[in-house]
Design a protein that fits this description.
The chain is built from 13 helices and twelve strands. The chain is of the alpha/beta class. The chain folds into three domains: 50 residues, 434 Repressor (Amino-terminal Domain) (Orthogonal Bundle), CATH 1.10.260; 120 residues, Rossmann fold (3-Layer(aba) Sandwich); 148 residues, Rossmann fold. α9 links the parallel β6 and β7. 42% of the residues are buried. The N terminus is likely disordered. Pfam families: LacI (PF00356), Peripla_BP_3 (PF13377). This is LacI family DNA-binding transcriptional regulator. It comes from Nocardioides donggukensis.
Length: 346
């Protein structure tokens, strides 16, 4: 009697679902386990395809993915920069209070960042990963899916991961409007970038806010007034040097950060330019040094952003409540001695 051939279709696997949906297997895994980082439309499409193919997540794998290690990874571009260290200190303090240990990964520059995403050293070692204002490339975003843990962004936003941040566009509008209200019409911006092919969301949003404030006041947007310098101690000094060399220099400068502004103040002092009598300077952060330099700035409340990011982590890891997708801190203007009306308005 001839053998009966088994013509039953083989069980579908995750790769089958991914191929049908046109996404990676990691994205399928995140979608079916309810992890963030997948858009609602993509999640729904994956679930529908999985149902059609009769694919379900292995209960054993699901239980394994939910194990708790009591650790959280914090990934930071530069520990020795005030914004990142202040954010890290706030996050670590709040997580430690909740009996969670913190593993710190510094990824300074593209090479270290690429190695982190290639090797994923925190995978299966932690319950969640916090990215502190970390700019990433598209392929690095895809690698995040392979972590298999919750992801929270602090000090910025990425895809639809839960995040805690300041409204960077509002920050810039607040700073530039202050200068406009003082009577300034020639307002420049000094910004910095060391992202090697990636873009900080704050870089984009603060630039947008600067331009929006100028346009709302019917002021010309002058390309030569938008200066970008490499990250470092000389960013502000070199930025004001470029602006003062123009045929018509600005009467006010909006600096991307307090550290750039302090560097700019040094450059102005070296050139004998009086602040604010001849040129006003406003910045962003409310760095501890800002008060020492009597710097007008927009406070972005970095410790508060860190605290809110930590609450999102706790909500996801300990189930202490629903993690809100977006927590935004309101900035406020701190007026000190580096801004005043321009000379022709006194």
């Amino acid at each position: 009697m001839p053998a009966v051939q088994d013509v039953r279709e083989p069980h579908a696997n995750m790769a089958d679902v991914a191929a049908r949906a046109g996404v990676s297997s990691a994205t399928v895994s995140r979608a079916l386990r309810g992890l963030p980082g997948v858009s609602p439309a993509t999640r729904d499409r994956i679930r529908q395809i999985a149902e059609e193919l009769s694919y379900v997540v292995s209960p054993e794998a699901s239980r394994l993915s939910r194990r708790q290690t009591g650790r959280v990874a914090v990934v930071v571009p530069k520990i020795d920069v005030w914004f990142y260290s202040a954010m890290l200190a706030s996050i670590e303090a709040h997580l430690r209070e909740a009996d969670l240990d913190v593993l710190i990964y510094q990824v300074d520059g593209r090479e270290q960042r690429s190695r982190f995403f290639r090797e994923l050293p925190s995978r299966r070692k932690v319950d969640a990963v916090v990215l502190i204002a970390l700019p990433v490339l598209e392929d690095e975003e895809e690698r995040l899916d392979l972590l298999g843990v919750q992801v929270v962004v602090a000090g910025g936003e990425l895809r639809d991961y839960p995040h805690a941040r300041v409204d960077d566009q509002a920050v810039a509008v607040l700073a530039v409007q202050h200068l406009i209200e003082l009577g300034h019409r020639r307002i420049a911006m000094i910004r910095t970038s060391d992202t090697t092919g990636t873009i900080w969301s704050s870089y984009t949003e603060r630039t947008r806010g600067y331009l929006d404030a100028l346009r709302a006041a019917d002021l010309d947007v002058r390309e030569e007034y938008l200066v970008t310098e490499p990250f470092g101690l000389r960013a502000g000094t070199d930025g004001v040097a470029a602006l003062l060399a123009l045929d018509e220099p600005p009467t006010a400068v909006f600096a991307y950060s307090d550290e750039i502004a302090i560097s700019a103040l040094r450059g102005l002092q070296q050139r004998g330019v009086r602040v604010p009598e001849e040129l006003s300077v406003v910045a962003v952060d409310d760095h501890p040094m800002a008060a020492l330099f009597d710097l007008t700035t927009v406070a972005q409340h970095v410790p508060d952003q860190g605290r809110l990011a930590a609450t999102q982590v706790l909500a996801l890891v300990h189930g202490t409540g629903a993690a809100e997708d977006s927590l935004v801190v309101d900035p406020h203007l701190v007026i000190r001695g580096t801004t005043a009306p321009p000379p022709d308005r006194r």
